[in-house]
Amino acid sequence: MAAVAVGGAFLSATLQVLFDRMASPEVLDFIRGRKVPDNLLVKLETSCLALNAVLNDAEEKEISNPPVKKWLDELRDAVCDAEDLLDEIATEALQCQLEAKNKVRNCIPVSFNRSGIRLKSKIEEVIIRLEDLAKQKDVIGLRERVGGKSSQKLPTTSLIEDTGIYGCEFLVMLPTNMRKLVNLRHLDISRTSIMKMPIQMGGLKRLRTLTKFIVDKDSGFQIEELGELSNLRGTILISKLQNVINPMDVLKAKLKVKRHIEELTLEWDTDGIVSQSEREVLNHLLPHTNLKRLFINSYSGTSFPSWVGDRSFTNITVLHLKSCRCCPSLPSLGQLPSLQDLSIVGFDKVVRVGPDFYGSCSSAVTPFASLRILKFEGMLNWEEWLCYDGEHEQGGAFLRLQDLYLVDCPKLSGSLPKQIPSLSTLVISNCSQLETSLPSAPAIRDLQLMFCNEVLLKEMPPKLNELRMEGFHNLESLLDGAMDHNHCLEELIIGDCPVLKFLPHGGLLTSLKKLGIFNCKELQFPTYPSYSSLESLDISHSCNSLMSFPLDIFPKLYYLGIKMCRNMESLSVSEGHHLDLLVLEIEECPNFVDFPSGGLPAPNLTRLKVTNCPRLVSLPQNMHMLLPSLQSLYIKDCPQVDLFPEGGLPTNLNRFVIDVSEKLFANRMDWGLQRLCSLQILLFSNLAGDCQDVQSFPEENLLPTSLSTLGIAGFPNLRSLDKRGLQHLTSLEELWIKDCPKLKHMPAKKGLPMSISHLQIRFRVLGTPMYLFKNHHPLIGAMANQKVKWASVQPSNILLLECRKDNVSEQNLQIILNWYCSISGQSINLAKSDVFCSPNMPLEEQQALARTLQVNLVQQPSKYRDTISNRNSLGGREGSGLRSGRESASDQSRLGRPSVAGDWQIIIKIVNSRSRKFHRYGTVYEGLTVQGEKVFFGAISSTARTSTGALLEAMLEAVLTAKSQGFQHILVLSNSRSLMQTYRHNTTMDWLDSTRLTDLRFLNQNGVCCNVFWVPTVVVKDLRAVACLATRMPMHFCWFPTAGPTLLYNELM
């Protein structure tokens, strides 16, 4: 058999991602904005380059050289950690919505909860690890090589001396005759979808690396074969332990003598049913005391064996216990001398954490002497945390604890440990019954209190640097007297405090650098000049009393975001005053009318965004002189803006996105676009669809030659592209056209610039987004002679089609289904599909449709009950639907009017999980009626660039599914704040995500009222298991189960 080595390729690709991220202007500007020294990035890049140079040599040697294999394993971990850190930075930079491409001092989003000091520390930690690995490469004999490693085929006999098998992610089964590879030493299947092990694995006695072992359901005695693998080392996951038939067989696995195993994961797959045998199984899984990291997942025993937490495990630094839902008490863990990271998640039966948790009272060892990170999450019935008995005499049980997280513990009350002298980060979320003072910890710099009792606010740490407060529904005044002596607070975020009226006076505001306020409608924003240090200010859906915003009281402000402030009318600035603003964003302010008289004096402004301001008449005056640094201009849903300011746009403009009105677009030849020699990205849209006279576009001499990307969207009568306006664009690389349904003519051969390499044409069929691929439409087929390299786009996946007899025949429906299959790369199993039709459709036509599709015809079956109303389910027109056809329960709702709680017709829960190993996101969504009845369920395995992108992809599909079922008032619940903010602010820097947002807004403007709310993880935790599964294999489907996620979970397993 062929041995496939993918470790080096994985590392090389990951390092390339790191290089790209480090070179990203958004990341660079963000890091510099946090005052992190530039030389750290240089060190990080230098270390990655040095390591990348020897990857080819390491890949060849790792099979036969154990030190090299170990070195590569450590490098993979370090690179993944670096990738995670940069991914987090990039995500926060995305939320900051900075798109300027030159290296300027960018804004810092107030949602970033870590100070520059902590960010610098994290980067330094990664650099130290990479530099150490770079030094080791010479010691273990790695050398730089030119060129890549050629693939080799290995013999299939037992004569193999040294080899390793590393499975790629699509591998689902190992060969049944694996036992013949008696000299095999390395078997890494950690990134595969393998669900079953071959028999007689114990014959591979020379095996050193076995990353995963799956206990088979039908032959659970296989676990004993681990006993023959005496040379195992490194990391191993033993999963599906519920399949062990006889607990005594576990003893034969001989984990206790495997001294080289450093990381052990023990995993069950149960439904939370109490199992008496599982304790015995876990007891017999006693590992060697050299173990460093231990993870136990979904254990259903009622207690832990004594070895879990025994002080003889002197090397354990990381211990995570997750979803042990049947255990009423925690194991004794306080005596582990080297434990640094402890996570306890999902212990539903635990009511009290007491002395047993700390360990033996007779021991002279201070409990948790080395612990740095402690996390309790999802402890739904936890009520009391008893302090360590010797706290006052010996100084406490957590002398070195730095980070403490208490999340989703709704019944926790009483007191918290008092003496935690090293605590620097404290996060308490959804612990509404906790009424106590905070721990005495003078070192706390970062405090996050979310949906808790306001008693916790009475006494604040004296040197607090960052404070986040959310969900205090009865709080009227902030921190009255609690922070009078605090002059260190630099970041303050306040959210979801509906009756909060006042911010504190005095020195607190003077020290602030970042202030974020969201969902605090009654808050009276103080406008006296006390913001001498403020650099970033974000106000969203708050401060209803604020009508005019004075800019000159913020001498150092460089980011200002005002969003969904319904009474905001204008900005003001004193004459002769110059602003330091870099970014200004005004969004969804329905009464915003004016910029400062005479213009906006902001010479450093690089980004200006104004959206959904229906009363705004004009852009800032004298933009060409007062805004010389402006690079990004974004204007959308401002229908009263019908003229550009005198003098035109700033000449340094690099990106221009505008939603035009009919009158404004009619004057486009007067805009002066052709003189903007720096303009590279230009996107036109006409969301209102009122530009009826535009039939050909663009005109000659309208566009500048510097354009690299041109987008046109929403022109209902556009019929052709004018080659005279395009052929001189010699730098044009991307051209996309969207929602121009009458477009039929592209320029003839050689009519388009030869530089074009990306073409996207998108239109809508029956209100459903469809994408055209090469050879599926004459417009794109005609591009073959133009040498277009890429003429497709990642499709929006469509699973539900609504069809009407008056415009779609049976044959056309079949064509649409075939189209979907070719576009999405998926197939529709019609044999397992049903079709039901509107009662208005004649029976013979229903039967003809079913015969054409070769599906079952059903008449309102019970599993689709209430999906078809007794009235005309398709708005009074005859029709049919593939699992669709529900009419809105509220026909009187006005377009765009936000629903109140009682108006929601369906609730969609969305959650996702990221797999570093598989490099994809698994996202799951579930549609429920307001009574809790399941309507539909879907899972997606996505290769989106960000977590928010994956969630937007799933949200779009879920909303389309709900719409096809007739639901129009949709409430989306997710544990991702980023999704909520991105949707509400309607902004993202990724162009694919922008497309998804545009789709959602299109639906919103066509009768679908949708909103997104953040919820605690516990609300969507039942979907997480399926989301994790979805990361393991390519999948994309939606169905209507009767058993919900459990059925899907079993199907996948």
Automatic annotation (TrEMBL):
Transmembrane segments: none
Residue ranges of coiled coil: 41-88
Boundaries of every R13L1/DRL21-like LRR repeat region domain copy: 223-346
Record InterPro entries: LRR_dom_sf, LRR_R13L1-DRL21, Rx_N
Domain Disease resistance N-terminal, residue spans: 10-103
Entry keyword set: Coiled coil, Nucleotide-binding, Plant defense, Repeat
Residues of the signal peptide: none
Annotated region described as Disordered, given as residue ranges: 867-897
GO biological process: defense response
Molecular function as annotated in GO: nucleotide binding
The protein, known as: Rx N-terminal domain-containing protein
Organism: Castanea mollissima (Chinese chestnut)
